[in-house]
Amino acid sequence: MTDMASGFLRLMTGMLGAGYPMRLYVGVAIGTLIKMFVGVLAFVYPDQVVWHALDVFSLTWYLVIVIPLLFAPLAFGHKGAPESVAHQVKTIELLISQAGFTKVQAALIWKSLIDKYIKAMQPDLSRAPKLADLYKETAKELSDGGGHPS
Amino acid sequence: MSEHDKDQEPQDKDQESKAYRFGVYLGRTVGVSSIVGFFFTLVSIILTRFDFDPIKFLASLVDAAWKLSLTIGFGALLGALIAAFLLVRGRGEESASKLPSDIVSENYFSENGRLWLMAGGGICLFGFIAVAMSDLAASALCFVLGVATLSHYLLTKLRVERGFFGSNASEALELISFITDHANRTGLPPGSRASRPYDLSDRTKTATDLETSRGQVRTR
Questions:
Q1: Nearest CA to CA, how far is A8 from chain B (Å)?
Q2: What confidence score (pLDDT) does residue B122 get?
Q3: pLDDT band at A80, cuts 50/70/90?
Q4: Could you tell me which of B186, B151, B7, B153 has the C-alpha nearest to residue B74?
């Protein structure tokens, strides 16, 4: 399976909500739970018309309504990449489409963008982030007569 | 082989090809007529069942189309799942590239892979619950979502192992989100580990030298 075919299929499954599996799972669980509660309430309170009216809707409708609700925070919240990054990605996408690059060139541009982010966040791994370790490292350098840590 | 046999051979071949062609024509005729007959039967059943009521006919058509599209969608997803599974099998040793972005992709998959598996299995389980509640449409929806999640897992695995992952805008954004989220949670980017400060510089020394130097550090 090529890059294009697998990417397209992955996009399709992502559009069905598979990119956020736990939200999907919890959405299905909550939808089923609400339907069961409504069914029980309609059985326990036969005089209340509301429960019967709600019980008429099948489980499909509950799932169709509840699952998108769990995806709403993604649209309005700040989860995922910062807004500036999303903007940058959209700008690069536009530039790639206007420049008429080939698929391979575009793939290389995306890979280099990710590498840029990794490099920006990568600390020098020979050093631990704690200050106490930094002190130990300095002391080690002094004791060895200026040996270099990395 | 005599000369008579040599003359006979092309005639046999000719007769064989004639028989073959006759078989093909017969097969095509039977196939086409059965398809035409099937459609005529279907149309006659529809017309007699709904008494030429166009609204009922359209309603049944929409209902059939909805069920058909759901079936095709489920079939396509199942096909993708099987194809991805077959392709992923035995491909694990091909991940030879060690670019930083590939290492981050592998980390991303190893952290999220089990979530996809668990969610996909769980949603399929809810599909069985919906069958028990005798709601076939809901069970079909659950199975479609469950199979989509499992397909997503396998496709991600395939793309990560072949080094394709992160080669488009949405996946790049996904990886950048993962990098920033991981750094926010743990204080370190994915793929890194909290190293001792003198691990790398002391790699060439013996254990005794190491202990001595550590002792010196402690005494100071």
A1: 10
A2: 92
A3: low
A4: B151
Q: What count of Cα atoms within 13 Å lies in the side-chain half-sphere of residue A109?
A: 19
Contact flag A21-B155 (C-beta cutoff 8 Å) = no
d(CA B176, CA A87): 13
> What is the number of residues in chain A?
150
The amino acid occupying position A125 is L
Report whether A27 contacts A70 (CB < 8 A).
yes
Identify all chain A residues contacting B91, using CB atoms and an 8 Å cutoff: none
The C-alpha atoms of residue A147 and residue B4 are separated, in whole angstroms, by 98
CA distance A48 to chain B (A): 23
DSSP per-residue codes, chain A: --HHHHHHHHHHHIIIIITSHHHHHHHHHHHHHHHHHHHHHHHH-TT-HHHHHHHHS-HHHHHHHHHHHHHHHHHHS--SS-HHHHHHHHHHHHHHHHHT--HHHHHHHHHHHHHHHHHHH---TTS-SSHHHHHHHHHHHHHHTS----
A37 in reach of chain B (CB within 8 A):
no
At what angle are helices B136-162 and A59-76 packed, to 10 degrees? 40
Tokens describing residue B44: 């006659």
- List own/partner pairs for A116-119 with CB under 8 A and 24 or more apart: A117/A85, A117/B175, A117/B176, A117/B179, A117/B180, A118/B100, A118/B101, A118/B104, A118/B179, A118/B189, A118/B191, A119/B100
User: Is the entire prediction scored with pTM above 0.80?
Assistant: no
pLDDT over threshold 70, residue B218 = no
Say if residues A45 and B143 touch (Cβ distance below 8 Å): no
Residue A87: how many other CB atoms lie within 10 Å: 11
Specify whether the backbone of B52 is left (phi greater than 0), alpha (psi in -120 to 50) or beta.
left
Q: Is the ipTM of this complex over 0.90?
A: no
